[in-house]
Amino acid sequence: GNWSRLAAQQRLTQDQLLNFDTFGNVSLIHVTDIHAQLKPIYFREPSVNIGVGRNRGEVPHVTGADFRRLYGIEDGSPSHYALSSGDFSSLAQAYGKVGGLDRVSTVINSIRADRPDALLLDGGDTWHGSYTCHHTQGQDMVNVMNGLKPDAMTFHWEFTLGADRVTELVEGLPFAALGQNIFDAEWDEPLPDLFPPYKFFERGGVKIAVIGQAFPYLPIANPRWMFPEFSFGIRDENMQAMVDEVRAQGAELVVALSHNGFDVDKKMASVVTGIDVILSGHTHDALPEPVLVGETIIVASGSNGKFVSRVDLDVRDGRMMGFRHKLIPIFSDVIEPDAAMTKLIDEQRAPFETQLKEVIGTTDELLYRRGNFNGTWDDLICNALISERDADIAMSPGVRWGPSLIPGDDITREDIWNVTSMSYGEAYRSEMTGEFIKVILEDVADNIFNPDPYYQQGGDMVRIGGMGYRIDVTKPQGERISEMTLLKTGEAIDPAKTYVVAGWASVNEGTEGPMIWDVVEDHIRKQGTVKLDPNTSVEVVNG
Amino acid sequence: GAGAALMTVLPLRAYAATTDELIAEFTGGADIADTGIDFTAPEIAENGNTVPISVSAEGASAIMVLASGNPTPPVATFNFGPLAGSHSASTRIRLAGTQDVIAIAKLADGSFARASKTVKVTIGGCGG
Amino acid sequence: MADGVKPRVKAPKTAAAGEVVTLKTLISHPMESGQRKDSDGNTIPRSIINRFTCDFNGENIIDVKMEPAISTNPYFEFEAKIPEAGDLKFTWYDDDGSVYEETKSVAIG
Ligand SMILES: [Mn+2]
Ligand SMILES: [Mn+2]
After folding, report:
1. Which part of the chain is the Sulphur oxidation protein SoxZ domain (chain C) (predicted)?
2. How far is CA A200 from the centre of its chain?
3. ipTM for the whole complex
4. pLDDT tens, A401-439?
5. A498 in helix, strand or coil?
6. pTM, rounded to two decimals
7. CATH 2.60.40.10 is held by the domain C6-108
8. Which residues are paired to A29 by β-bridges?
9. Where are the domains of chain C?
10. Which ligand has the minimum distance to the alpha carbon of residue A218?
11. Is B123 within 8 Å of chain A by CB?
């Protein structure tokens, strides 16, 4: 539909976006999964996000028009554009880009004007995801985030900078680096000097304990060899012990700053008692209302700098008596940038400006990533892997970060790095049997569709180029994947036959190959203008 | 991203007969209760070669641990002496693939208790 | 004897009489399972530590029968009751007949 005219009639204002009736005596500000996006971007929310087991049909596993019906969001409205998929390209043209940490700063300043002692908490996945972050090993993000003056953060992709670098950066932080589940791997002991489990804050006359929960499956989802001295895990027994410990020390409000992912947080809230608020990260979900589990509220604040959550709480007599919440979308054209932060951001980017801005091609397509099975960015990356690495089949990891581009956009080097940059970006080329390819698909599928959230890792399905398959998400591991077909011949994949597979982001040490961003850049240069065929190669059963 | 070809495919086999035999040998064929023993292991192993496990059974004289899906299921048997401060212990074990890990305690009164947990060993990769 | 086998122990130097204390041990050892094959396809023979014990003043705390499924560099954590001043003795028994020992004194105070 053509929403641009409608949208133009609905004039958004900064006052509207920031309007909030200050409530209670404590304010929490949550940002998470920024993935090094300093500047405004487009970010399309998923249209396929399947919940399994008890989470089937529950938020955040509701998308598109169903999501809008559930929350009473009008089609074509700013909330439609910000929170759900559908008509993305035209709405993006009407409403413009989102995010930018200078705009985020304006929002934080405005909340602090209402409530000067508001707590700012960063859920992690902050020091990863861009050209400048990669080339400064996270320093650009540390410098800019320090400008926002957070009170605490927790971690995931930060560890892929390597144990030495993450330790160096953490030691220099002027705020708390929290992780009750970050342990020394050798003796299985906590690391209270580097990653304390919690920190107390006295705000609004309330004694608040913030407990950190890093991503539990870091050594599985990311290369363990990059940080072998650390062990993670959910450790919900230790979480309970920490909650009991802070309560015993007089905590009147217990906040978990979590990078578990939403469904894991829901389960943790049902297992651990005494947490008032979970600020949830990792799965990149953005929800306009907190979800209540028992007496715990769970807040999901999106990703890529697109949202800031504000949670005002009334805490009296050692109890959370009530809350008021707003998920604030960062409409970049509406929210005035904080000039000091713009300057700080531009200073980080200045040494790389020429490389960042180089135009590699243009796109006729909407390029996005989010979705359980495929996105057009990964279709393009898979095409690049097949043609540049001369492969039968391509695999692209189901990560959830990476902004979108809309039809007609230039594709700059920065755009390519925004969806590919990492510290293990080698594009491997190897031979795999059909049987082994199925083992991989079954393994990854179980990490997403296991009905018990504690067995999930919170990513999306590995994206496949050159091969189609059918998946029944309700089956157990080993039985979900069938009908594997080599697209170029139309033949069934033979378990015994060997295929050339190209991919990237292998967690194995010693993986060799050109960097994925160079592979994608070479491919786009040859294309000039990116056009993609609709991807119909995955048939989802019981989705 | 999914692992490259270097990755070993871990078999998902069960050696039920052997596991049952080992249990029968340990218990002498006695009945086994579902309570009286705690067994802790991660849902997903960070590394299949070194999976932390803990066993605890009040008053137990011995606790046997079996990995039902390993080529050879025996893992360890903890025998507690008179100066044991608790009847609990932790160690790290190897798991050749996703499987149920089983712990069986011989309790003070001579009865037996069992607990188990599914531990997933995964190829890994990908993430949010 | 496997090369470079080195036991390490974490134990408190003092305890109250009758106190229950936590003990942790690590010993560097490959724990060759007997399941692996070398590059020529020949099975690498099993060579593991098969038993670990801990005693205090000659009385047993724990006695562990270890199988090839115990990880490289075996780790144990357990608890001991310390009735009096004395010595904790940790002993590891290797398939090859080697015995590795470590002693930690605990004072009462
Ligand atoms: Mn993230
Ligand atoms: Mn994450």
Report:
1. 10-103
2. 27
3. 0.92
4. 999 999 999 999 999 999 999 999 999 999 999 999 999
5. strand
6. 0.95
7. yes
8. A120, A310
9. 6-108
10. 2
11. yes
